[in-house]
Amino acid sequence: MKKSGNCREYVASMKDGIVRRRLLKNASFGFSWLSLCGLLTESASCATLARSRSQFPARAKNIIFCFMDGGPSHVDTFDYKPMLKKQEGKPIGESAVSKRSQSNANRVWLGSPWKFRKRGQSGMWVSDLLPNIAQVADEICVVRSMVGELPLHGNQNLLLHTGRILGQAPSMGAWVSYGLGSENRNLPGYMLLNNDWVPNGGLENFGSSFLPASHQATMLRPDGVPVDNIIPSDSDRLQRKKLNLLAEQDQEFSKRTADPLAIEGAIANYETAYRMQSTIPEVADIRPEPKHIQKMYGVDSSDKYQQHYATQALRARRLVEAGVRFVEITCPSFDGNNSPWDQHGQIKKGHEKNSLITDQSVAALILDLKQRGLLDETIVIWAGEMGRTPHTPKVTPTCGRDHHVNGYSLFIAGGGFKAGMTFGSTDEFGNSVVENRVDIHDIHATILHQMGINHETLTYRYGGRDNRLTDVHGRVISEILA
Amino acid sequence: MDVVRYTDTYGYEWDNPVKGSWEYRDYLIRAFNNNVGFDQMIREQIAGDLLPNPRINTEQGINESLIGPVFYNMGEHRHGSSLQFNGIHQDMVNNKIDAFSKAFLAMTVACARCHDHKLDAISQKDYYALAGVFMSPRWSARVIDLPGKNETAIEELRRLRQEIRQLLAEQWMSEMNGEFPVRLEQWAQAKLKSSGNVTIEQIAFPLVQIVSVQDAEIQKSWSEMSAAWQSERTKRIAANKRFSLLSDFSQPGFPKGWVTEGAGIRHGYTRNGAPLVSLQGESLIQKLLPRGYHTHALSSKLPGAIRLPAQKKIKGRYISLKMEGGEWAGTLVIPQNAIQTETIRFFDPVQPLHWVSFADSALKNGVTRVLTEIATASLNTNFPPRTGLARAGKVSLPNNDDGFDKRSWFSVTGIVTHETGGVPVDTLDSFASLYAGEPATKPPTNKKESWEQFTQWFSGSIERWASDEATDADVKKINWLLREKLLSNRRDQLPQVAALVDRYRKVESGIPFPRTVNSMDERQLPPLDYRLNLRGNVDADGPAIPRDFLEVFAGQNDVGKSKQSGRLELARFLSSPRNPLTARVYVNRIWQWVFGTGIVSTSNDFGKLGDRPSHPELLDWLARQFMNEGWSTKKMVRRQVLSRTFRQSSSFPRIAAERDPMNRLLHHYPTRRLEAEEVRDSLLMVSGRLNTTLYGHPINPPRHHEDAAKRLFSGPLDGDGRRSIYLKMSIMDPPKFLVCFNLPDLKLPTGKRDVTNVPTQSLALLNGPLTIHLADYWAERLMQDDSRNPKTRIRAMFVQALGRLPKEHELKRWSDAVNGFSTSDDVMKDKNAWAELAHALFNTKEFLYYR
C-alpha cells in the first residue's frame, strides 16, 4: 500500500507518461529502453526505501541460516551435562516436568552417547557428534539458553521463522529482503536452498505473508532444475524472437491502457526474467569452484544427501557473494521421517546421519567465508526449532529424545558476533535455563541489529497495526556482540 | 472463497484432509449459480444445521443447509488437543472468530483475544462471549443425504433379508435330524487332533471335553462339567455386579442425551438373530447379529455415528460399550472440539464383540468438555487422521488414500458404567440350557446320548431363532455352527437362497456411498460458556463469559437469550434488514470484484483502522437495493456492470489524473491483472483444454517432489483441464502456479488479494511447463481448423485469446512472426511454429490484463 503510493508519486513527479511515450516513439528498440527505464525506477525507489529503513551502520550484509529442521539435541551437541550419564535411568521426578518439554515424572535421564571435549583456544565444549564444527569452535558463538513456547514442531518452526507460533506473518528472510532489498537486481532477496522439502508449519515458514510477494523465498533445488521455470524453454534465438514480438505488441497495449504503470512493470519483468535465466543457473553452478573447495564442503561425498547439502552450502556462499541478502538451507529428509532431526527413537543412528549430512559443510562454509574475508559481513546461523529432552521413557539401545524447548542451543558465527563465546546456561541436567534466558525474538532483534535495522521500527502496516518481526518482544543481546 | 479461507486440508504438520471441504466448495458454486439469496447463505454458513426449514436439493437428494457450517472447518487445525499441549483449541477458535468477523462484519475481533480493541468498540469480553457461541456445538461430521434417500432400496433389502431368514430357518431345522449328532461327534474328534486351547467360554468347550471320555465315565464327567460351569458362572455374575447397565438394547433407542447420526443407525437396530447377508463370496450370510445396533445390518455403505453426552455428564468414572467394527470405523475422544485428536482408535475387524472403556479425562488447560464418538469412516470427523495413525490391527491405511467412498461398519450391543477400571466378563449364558435348562437337566449316560443332548442344545436355539425368540446365547451358538460349517451356508448348497442373496447384493450395490461433511451438531448438547484468558494467556483462566454477540449490537439480537449456542439467533440477526452492516460489507465485496477496489477499499475492515468509504451514500443505497431485491448476488452484479461507471473506457483526460490520481472516484475503469485462477483458467480455455466438468474431489496440483507422510502428492500438469477452483488447496503446499500469481495465504481470511508484479510470473509464463503444454495443445487443434492462410488463423486466435480482431499491422506482425518460427515449406501445417505463436500470445500483457 505504502510502497505503491510512493512509486506513484515518484513516477508522477517524473511526468512519467509523457517521457515514456516519447521514448517509445523515438527509440527503435523500445523494449530495452523501456526496461532500463523500469529498472531505474525500481532501483531508485528501492534505494529510497532501504535507506529509510536502516537506522545505523550495518555490521553485516548477509545472512546464511542453516536450519536444523526437527530439533538437534542440545545435550548431545553443545550443552555438556555429565550428570546425565551419572543419573542415567533414574526417574526425573515431578520437579523436572515442564510444559515446554514432552515430560512426565516417570521418564528417566539419558546420558549422551557422544563424548564431549574442550575445543580450540576458547575451550568450548562440543561433542564428537559434530567433529567438523568442533574444529571451528573458535569462530562460533553458542547460545545455550534458548527458550521456546511449545514443544511442537509446527509452532516452533513458525516461531523461529516468523516470530509467531501461529505464523500468519512474514518469514525473517522476507523481512530482511523487505528491509534491505537485494543487492543484485537479477536475484531475489531471500533464497531457500532445499529439496522441495516442506517442513512442519508448511511453506508459510518461508513466505512473505502480508509483505509484498517479491520477498518470499525463491527455492533452489540441489539437483535437476534448480529453480522453477528458470531453464529457457526455447533456444536463445527463438526466445529473443518471441521477446521482440512481445515487446512490440505489449508497448502498443500499454499505450492504450489508462494505467500503464503496471503494464510497464510487467514488461520490464520480462527483461529481468530473461537475465535471471542466466544469472541464477550461473550462480547455482558450482563447477567453476576449485576441486579442493568442493571437497572441503563434501561435494564429493558418496552419500547423496551429504552431496546435496554440500552443494547447497557452497551455493549459499556464492549467493551471498552475488548479493542475496538472506539464504536459508534446510536439511534433507532421509528416512521419510516427519522432520530430519526428529529422533524420538534411534537417536544415535539418526543424529549421526544428520551430522554426516550437514556437519562438514557447515564447518567448511564458515572457514571458506573466513578465508575470503566474508565472515565479518555474513551472519551464519545454525539452529533447529527446538532441542531434545535430556530424558527418555526408558533407556534402551534404540531409545530417543523427545521435544524440548525449555532450554536448548544454537550458534551464530560471523557478522560481528563474539567468536568462541558460550552464552547462557541450563541446569545440571540441561533441562531448564538457569542463566541468561534468550528467546527467538531476541535472536531476531539481534540479527536485525547487526544488519543495521532497528527491530522496533522495521514495520509494515497490515490488519490495522504496524507489524514487526519481533511482534511486541525482542531485545538486542549486546553481550554476544563483538 | 478467500474470504472464508477455503482449504482442502488442515495444514500444520500433517496436512490432513478436511472432510467435505469440496462439498462446501460445490455448495458455494451451486448457490451462486442458482442465485440463492445471500441472507440465506449467511444463515446456512453460521447455523445451517439449526435451520427449521433447511434448503433441500431434491435433484441430488441432499440438505444444502447442512453444508454451510463447513465454513467453520476451514483454516488451520493443529493435531492433538489442549489436554496434551495447552493452546490448541484456543488457537482454533481464534481462527473461527477471525474468519467470521472479517467475512460477515468486516471487523477484526480476533485481536480482542488478548486485550480490548484499542480503537473499535470491541472488548475482550466480546471475544470470549462469541467464542462460547462457536465452541458450544460439537464440531462434528454430518450426513447431508436426505434421510429417505435410499428408502426403496433399504425396504427391499429388509424384505429380502426376511425371506432369506425364513428359507434358512426351514433348511436348518431340517438339518437338525438323526445325522446331526454324528456330525457333531466327528467334528469334535477332528478338533481333538488339531491343537489349540479351548476355554470355558467357548461353545466348543463341552464338546471337546466329552469326545475323549468313555461311556462309563460320561455321567461323571458331565456332572463335573456342569458343576464347574455353575461355580464359574456364579463367580462371574458376582464380578459383574460393579457394572451398572445403561442399555442392553432390549428396546431400540439410546439413553437420554445420546445423539445418533446416519442411516446406518436409523436402520441398524436388530433383535437377536437378524442375518447379516454376505455381500460377496460363496457364503450366503456372514453370521447372525445379536441384539443391538449394527450400522451394516443392511449395508456397510450406510454411515453411522453415536455421540455420547460429554464426559462427567454420565454417572460413573468409566463408560464401557460392547462393540466391534471394521473398515475404518473407530472411536474418538475430543477434548474441547480439538477434532484433529490423537485419541482416535480404529476397530480391528479380527476382534469380535468386546468391551471398550472410556475413562473420564482429568480436565486441565482450559478444557471444560470432552466428547466421545463412535463413527464409521464417513462420519468420523478425523478420518483419515494424520498419516501413521490409521491402523486397525495389522492393517494400515495407505497415505494416498483420502478416505473417500469407504464401506465401514460397527456394532454396539451393550452399555455399562462403572467407577473402577476393567470390563464385564462373559457369564457363560450359552450353556444354561445345556446344564440347567429343560429338557437337558439330566446328565447323559453314554456317548450317544451326550451327542443327542448337544444336538438338542443346538436345535433348541435354531427353533427359537426360527420363531424370532432367539436369545443372545442362541445367536452365539448358531454363529458357532456357521463358523464350523455345521449348517448349510453356501451358495451351491442352497440355490434358492442364493438367488435371494444375489438379488440382495444387486440392490445393495445400487446404494450410493454417503455424502458427509465436517459441520456442526448441537443436538442434546448443553451449551457452554467460555473462560476468558487473562491477557490472552491460555494458562491464565479468568471468569466464564456468558455467550453473546458483540456488545455494540446489544439489544438488537437474541444471541444472549438463546437456550442453545446462539448461532441460530446470530444468523437471523446478521441476515435481517435490521442490521444493514452485513449487506454493506457484502455489496462492497461485489463492488471490489467488479471494479477492483471496494467503495471501502479495506473490504475486511470497516472499523476505525479501515479505509473510509469513497462514496458512503452509494454504498448505503446499494445495500438497501440489495436487501430489497432479495439479497440477490446476480442482480447486484448486473446493477453494477450495467452502470455507466462500469461501461466507461479506461482512457481519461489528464486533468482527471491530477484531481484523482488514485482513481478513487473512478473517473476511468482501472486496468486489472487477471487473478491467479483466472490466468490458469484462461490458458485452459483458450487452448481448448478446458474440461467443463463441475464439482467433485479436489485434484492434486503438479509437484516436483512428493511427500507421502504429509499427503503431498503430485497430480497432472494441467489438472485434467479442470478449472483452478477444483485444484487441491493444501495449506502446507498450495498449487505453485497459483501462488506465483498471488494466491493468498490459505489460513487467513483474505478480503483483497495482493497484485504483485514479479519476474517469477514472467518466468512461469515464458518457461513454465503449463503454458508450453497448453500452447502445444492449442497448436494441435489449430492444425485441424479450416484456415487457408496464416492471417485467417491469427484472426481466430486473437478473438479466442484477446477477445478482439487484430488490426492490420498486428496481422502483419504476427504472420511475420509465425513465418519466422517456421522451419517448414508449408507454414500452415507446421505445428511447432503455431505452438510458438500460441505461446507468445499467452505471454502478451493483453492476455494477462483487462481494461
Summarize the structure in words.
Chain A has 482 residues and is α/β, with parallel strands linked by helices. Chain A folds into 2 domains: 2-52 and 233-275, no CATH class; 58-228 and 290-480, Alkaline Phosphatase, subunit A, CATH 3.40.720.10. Chain A has 13 helices and 19 strands. In chain A, strands 1, 5, 6, 7, 8, 9, 13, 14 and 17 form a 9-stranded mixed beta sheet that branches. In chain A, strands 2-11 form a two-stranded antiparallel ribbon. In chain A, α2 (16-26) runs antiparallel to α3, α3 (30-53) crosses α9 (260-284) and α8 (236-256) packs antiparallel against α9 (260-284). Chain A starts with a helix and ends in a 15-residue tail after the last strand. With 851 residues, chain B is of the alpha+beta class. Among the domains of chain B are: 151-243 and 432-509, no CATH class; 245-428, Jelly Rolls, CATH 2.60.120; 767-850. Helices cover 38% and strands 11% of the residues of chain B. In chain B, β12 and β13 (344-346) form a beta hairpin. In chain B, α7 (179-193) packs across α12 (447-466), α12 (447-466) packs across α13 and α25 crosses α26. The longest helix of chain B has 25 residues, at 151-175. The model of chain B has no long low-confidence stretch (mean pLDDT 93). Chains A and B meet through α6, α8 and α9 of A and α23, α26, α27 and α28 of B.
